[in-house]
Structure formats: structure tokens, C-alpha cells
Write a structure and sequence with these properties.
Elements lengths: L2 E6 L26 E4 L5 E5 L9 H4 L10 E3 L22 E12 L3 E7 L5 E6 L2 E3 L18 E2 L5 E4 L1 H18 L15 E12 L23 E7 L1 E3 L9 E4 L17 E10 L5 E11 L2 H7 L1 E2 L9 E2 L5 E12 L4 E10 L23 E9 L6 E4 L2 E4 H4 L19 E2 L8 E10 L4 E4 L3 E4 L2 E2 L2 E6 L12 H14 L3 E4 L6 H10 L2 E5 L12 H16 L5 E8 L13 H15 L4 E6 L16 E4 L10 H10 L5 E5 L27 H15 L7 E4 L5 E2 L12 E2 L13 H10 L6 E3 L6 E2 L4 E7 L3 E8 L5 E4 L1 E4 L2 E7 L4 E10 L20 E13 L6 E2 L2 E2 L30 E3 L5 E4 L4 E4 L8 H7 E3 L20 E5 L5 E8 L1
Parallel strand pairs: 1-47, 29-30, 29-36, 30-31, 31-32, 32-33, 33-34, 34-35, 40-47, 52-55
Antiparallel strand pairs: 2-12, 3-4, 3-5, 5-11, 6-10, 6-12, 7-8, 7-9, 7-11, 13-15, 14-15, 15-20, 16-19, 16-21, 17-20, 18-19, 19-24, 21-25, 22-23, 26-27, 27-28, 37-38, 39-41, 41-45, 42-43, 42-46, 44-45, 46-47, 48-49, 50-53, 51-52, 54-55
Helix pairs in contact: 5-6, 7-8, 10-11
Amino acid sequence: MTHPRIIPLSQTETSRYHVRDAGGTATLNHGPEREVVDLADLGWRFACGHGDDDILDPATAAAPDFDDSGWEPVTLPHTWNALDTNDGVRGNMNRTVGWYRAHLHVPVSPGRRTYLEFDGVNSITSLYVDGRALAPLSADPRDTAWNTGDPAHLGGYAMFRYDLTDALLDAVSTTADHDAATGNDAAPADGTADGDVRDVDVVIAVRVDNRRDLRVAPLFADFNFYGGIYRPARLVRTADVHLALDDHGASGLRVVTPNAGRSESVERPDHLGLTRIEADIVNDADRERHVLVRTTIVAPSATAAGNASATTVTDGTALPIADDAHDVTVANDVTNVTLAPRERRHVKVTLEIKNPHLWQPIDYSRGATNDDVAYQYNVRMTVIDTESPAKFAVGNGKIAPLAALGRNDNTAEAPGRHDGNGDARSQPATAPTGTPLDSVAERIGYRWFHVSHDHGFFINGRSHPLRGVTRHQDREGLGNALHDAQHLEDFTIIMQMGVNYLRLAHYPHANYFYDLCDANGVIVWAEIPFIDWVGEDERFADVTKEQLVELIRQQGNRPSICFWGLQNEVGNHNTANQWIAMPQLSRELNDLAHTEDATRYTTQAADQDETASSRGNWASDIISWNMYPGWYSQPGFGALIEQKRSIESRPLGLSEYGTGASIDQHELHPNAHKTRPNSYWQPEEYQSMQHEEALAYINAHDWLWSTSLWNMFDFGVDHRPSEAGRFEINNKGLVTWDRRVKKDAFYLHKANWNRLDPFVYIASRRYTAREEGPSTVRVYSNLDRVWLQVAHDGAAAVRYDARACGNGVFTVDGLLNESGVYTIWAYGVADDGGCEGEDGAVSPDDGAAYVNVYADQVIWTRLADGDRTTGGRIVGAVDDSDAADDGSDDGRARIADGAQIPWSLWARPDSGFSLDREGLRMIAQRPLPEITPEQWQAAFSFNGSGTIDFYATLPTGLTPADKAVVTAPDGTQTVFTVVQG
């Protein structure tokens, strides 16, 4: 006999799949030979202007002796728009110039180079060291700050670097000249000889401009362009012989797997493990240098590496060589390189792993263990000094201390083959030893993928429909200045829902977030910030191409990325400028992407028919559409998709769909006539209804190569008009902006996508007080059978078996048909494997003692006739003793005495009314007796969470002698005098 083991919803929120945290941002690609210093707590001081006013010029703000003690102390990441985009006032985001200053104390020594590395600064950046403007590495000389003329990095979402070495050496010379002039010839404080290592102090000043610049995309978009150094920054010190750091912000190590990428069929390609590794080796010394360049591919475990049967290209000889207790070198090469003074040499190495262990995507099917998900190899290139005193030997494909190898000479075995240039040549049987000078590592994965016009997406020969979400990087109260912990929390929530695919919109995201996708088997569409407008400037096309090059070179080694996004909804406004038209620009971007990377598809997110292959044919390999039936267009999900397919010959995906939703508004039978964009009424149930329709179509059409709903999280848009009574927010997310509440539609998608984590969820749960009825109770679940137990006013519970409607939806009709309090329990079980023993592993056929029953509970009130609600919450009695007897009193405002002021009350734009918040006065711009109740209702709104659809409706005939009290749903009240303007 089995017994039920009840598992409530709260215990199912943590997934059985444990997210791999990918190590964090600090790891990046830098080898152990480099000194890497996080600059988060450098003692930064910050100040900014206000729009175009109060902007400091570089001669002042970058001067070494400028007194910045009055500036705000900040740490990185930082944005100056975290709060003004979340204050309920539409359009007051401060787009201006911000300045960051800090004193940098750094050692300067012969044979070392020093770089400053920014992960992301929005959006135009200039750097000054002791007042001297430096140019970003690999920048176009024409890239300048538009009103200073100083060199600048253009674009707000990619990594970029500065070489500080010369500026620091100048500072050393200046200090030495000063010491000589003053007779101070003391040795450096660290005790080293003068000229060996000297500590130097410099002032670094960073000018950041997030105003619109017609050269730089995006020019306009439905998200905030937060200003600031909003991602980490660090100092990197290398040897004077090193891998180049000036390749458009990339690591300097490019790994191409020509057969492990985009494929013309689902069949496994030949030579899947073929790997081409390239880098530039730079000699910044004034003398000739002889070095070894060692390249390895390392497997993360001996077991996996043994299965991989890795070999070099030379003769197929297996080389599984243990580097330590866990990692195994499966392919390697050693190349001799001679570098003239100040020479740069391009090195290319070709290695092959036979039968590589595949990078597999995440699996959310029942019972999936995901033990083999997202397998990655580590590729490392190391530069070894053959002239310095021998500390390490290169032997048997690895670097080890001489003592460990039992050697005391300068020779070692060095197998391998490569493809080098110039003096790069194969190693003889023995090779000199030396000290590692520099190294860079990249993680890669071997997989192949194919997009079929009629059957959708395949990876590693198997159909794998891509079903996921889009994501913006901002968060309420923080803007886009997120730390790893927030990125990890976002990713964990996404994985809980069962997402196997992410469109990371509308710009390159943080390196750490891509790391999480690589490490957890989530496939990615990565894109550039080319949105809506073509900039009216001759440099716009070039700068946009530069952003595409940065994206591909910085993220091109990642196994998770399968698609490069070229544009989003260009055509909403301007499609051409006097220098270039969008069809031509699309072709140039597409060609550039293929030149940079032939192993991935190009795609675009379209909303204009001119983009389609049968119309303007804007170039990309495959295409997706942003479409919002029932929101921005007429209802009818399937019909709209079929119309787009009829004009498109390329494989078609769905890059955006969805509707807005307020967790504080509810309605049993919402409709598109009342619920629409920028309206005061956007009930949570309408979002769920639209997503139910979307999923029913998506689940039946695998030819959709990808689908990504808009959006995973609510996000900030400072210029947005009211959505459900709240300005500055796009509320189409399935999770609230603060990440605290998962909306009903979150669980609907989880029921469709995540079979790994059983659950039941009662939808419309926040509709706790209902005027409407009888009600259909909807349950979202990934289980096979669902039933309800319903108790009315404390009576015995009655069981109702739920009807399975498909696509994770279960319903029971005709409940709550009488007033009173209802307690509703939902239960669900799985027919296959849902019955388990206490250890969760024994089926009932094996004599299980327990059956897992998943449960959820709500308590709802069906109101009696005459009772009223606001947003699903009971409203107390209304004191209308002083109100005019004209029917205008609807329970949402009244004349009485009150107390506190809710921050979220605002006069609606262009209403003819304003608020004197300090004096607590409502000011009307026309005679009070002429104002109708409808005009009062439209005049004021509560924009904060929890106060949706709550307007100040006041009776006509008010005079300055009256007082108006507006009450928020949380009970707080604001007492206003009413005056005529």
C-alpha cells in the first residue's frame, strides 16, 4: 500500500538541476603569469552634469591637481541612472556626461606592460592619465568624443582596453626629474634599485557620455541607456613578450573549429575535432627574443579525455597526458618563435581531437541527469622564455618544474605539429626549457548544429526545438550595474522555468552571463545594439560594423552561441541616411559576420515586411519576427505567423511575443478591447491567456527554429507612458523587475518546458477577492493528472477532477458560484515514475511505500452583491458625506481627513492638472466647477507597484475650501487642498 507524500509548491521552486556558476567574472581569460587587479574599490570619485548643462571639460576634470573631494565616492560597477529611471516621473533620465576619478598606485618595471581593461561603459568613453588623453587599443582614429575631440571608445556594451605603459613610464620620468632637481636620490620605497621597480602614482579620469550620438547605435530603443562604468574594470600587467591585447577587446586567442559549428545537414561532420588556434605574439622589448609557444587542449577529467581519444594532427598518436589529478592534455603543440625587437608575429596551430566529447545542451525531460551537459575543453597558449634561468621544462606536452621531471638540463621532449609563419617551426626531439612569460585560455565545445526550413533546429544530429526567452540586464533600483550574484540569480530563475535558449537582447551581455550559458548547455542568440534607427551620420555604418567585430571576436569562441543577430526592428523609424540605405547595410553586416565567423548563422529580429525575402530581402541566413498579436496587433497568433511565413523563404523563428501584465490587476475574462498597451488596465490573466494561445501554436510547429518570448523580467524604460498606471516600465516580463514575484505565465511556460521538476500551480492566485463568478479554476502543471479539493466557508472539502486542456493547462469549471471564503487545494501526480519510495527512486511496481503528490493552495473570497474591489483587493466603506450627489463617487477617492503621502501619486501628463507635492495641493488649470468626474479620473494615477488601476476620482463642484483625500490600496492617504491654477 502506498501513502501520499505531499510536496508543496514552495519545495518545487529549487530545480533538481544545479546551475554551474562558471567561476565568476574575475577569471576571464588571463593566464596565471599576468597580474590582474580588480578596480572596484579603487577609491573612485564621481560627478556628472545635468543633461547638456554643468558638464566639466577635460582640462578641469582630468587635471592631476583637481580637487575632487566634493565628488561622490562610488565603487564599480556603477551607473548614475539607477534611481532617476525608477522614480515614477516619465522622461527625466539624466543623459549627460559623468566623470570618474581615482588615484592609481602601480609598480612600473622593465619588462612589464600595464593595461586598463573595461568590461562595459555606456556609451562613449575617454580616458586620461595625469591629464593626458589616451586612445583605446584598436580604435579607429576618427573615434573621438564629439565635443572634445579626444580619442574615445564608441559603444556601450563591449570590452575595450588601454595600454597605460608609456603614460606610466612618463610619470616615472617626471618623478625622476623632480627627484634630481630636488636632490632626492633615494632608492624606491620598496628597496629595489633605482631603475628596476618603481612605484608610481597617477590620476586616472574617465569621461563617460550617454547622450545620443548619431554615430553610435542604439539611437532609440525600448530600454534605458544607463550611463556609467557599469561593468567591472581591472588592471592587467603582462611581460614584455606576450599575447596581443589589442584585438578589439578580445582575449587575443582565437579558436576556430571549422567542422564543429553550422552544418548543412544533421549528419555528423568529418573531422569534428579539427581545431585551429591563432594568436599574435608581441615583443615589446628592445632586443631580439627567443620563445616557445606552447598550445594545449585540455579535457576536464581523465575519464572524459580517455573517451575522447584525442590526438595531434601529425600521426594520430594519442596523447592523453595528465596535467594534474583531474585535467588531461589531449592535444598539444610546441613552436619555436624568434622575435625581432618590437616585432609582432602571427602564430597559427592546427590540432585535432578524434571523436571529441560533445558539448550537449541542457535536457529538461523527466529523469534527465544532465551528467554530460555542456562538456568543455580548455585551450591554452603559453609563451615560454628560453633565455631566462630555467625554472620549468616543456616535456611530454606539459610544463613542469625541472625537479619534478628529474632533469637539470635545458632539453625535453616536445611532440606536436603546427602551422606557423616565419621562424615558427616544429620542435625537434628535444627542446629548451624556460619560464612561462604569458598565457591566455579559452573554453571551447565541440558540437554541430543545423537549421531546417521545415523541421527547425538540430544539434549533434538530434532535433532540439529552441524554446526560451529574451533578457535585459537591468534591475529595479540598480539599473544595469549588476554584480555576478545578480547575473547568477537571473540565470537560475531562467533555468527554473526550463529555458534551453536565450536571445540576449539588445546588445552584448556581460562575459559572465555568456559563461553561464556555456557551462549549462543553454544555446544563445547574441546580437549587436542596432535597433530601430539608422543614424544620420556618415560614421554610423562603420561604428555599427565595429560593434559587430567586437562582439564576434570577444565571444566567438563560445560553444553556446550559435547565432549572430544583425538588427532589431530597424524600420520602425528610419531605414536609411544620406550615406547608406538599410538593405545595403544589412548585406554589409551579413558579409562581415561571415568573414569574421563562417561557423555560425546570421539572423535578425524583424517587424517590417520589407525585411522579408520576398520583399526587400534584408540579408541574413535565417530570420525571426517580433510579433504581438492581441497587443500591438489584432488577436490571432497562428494567423500572423502564417502570414509572415508566406512572404519568407528562409527558416523562420519567433524572436519576440507577449503582453504586459500587472500582478495587481485581475479579471476572469479579459479581452483585447479593454487590455492594450499604455492603458490603465493590464490584468495578469490577460498575459496568461495570450501565452496559452502562443504555446498551443508553438508546441505544434517544430519548424519554428526558435522562439523567445518578450521578456523574462520586467525592465525599465524611462520614456514609456503609463503601463497599468505605472510609468517608466515595460511590464511584459514573466518576473517582476525586482525579481520578487513570478507571474502566472512563468509557471505556464515551466509546465510546458520543464519536465524535470514536477509541480502544480493555481493560476490567478493574486485575485483573492472576486466580484465575478462562477469561476473557472486554472492550474498549470507538468504532471499527468490534477484534481482539486475545494472547501467553502469551512465546510468539508469536495473533490473535482481537473480537465487536461493540453499544453500544461488543467481546468475545473463552475466554482465559486456563491459568496464566501473558498480554500482550494490543487494536487497532481505523474503516471510514469511519479510514485517513489522515500529516497525518490522506487516505483510503485517495486513496492513503493510512498507516492509523491505535488500540491498548491489558495484562499479566495467571492464577494457578495454590492461589495467592491480594486485590483482584486477589498475596498473599505466610503465616506461620501461631503461628496456631491451626482454618482461620481465610485469608492476610489473621498473627502475626509487623512495622513501620509504615497510617493506614487502623479498628475498624468497633459491632463491640465499638476501636484504641488510640498504644499499637498492639487492644482487645476481651469475652473473647478467645470471639471467633470471623468476629467478628475483621468488626471491622477498611482504609478507604484501595488496601486495599479487606482485613479483619483473626485466630485465636481470642489472649491479651495474643500480637502481632497486620495487613498492608495495599501491604505495610505494623501490630504490635498484643491486650488484653481
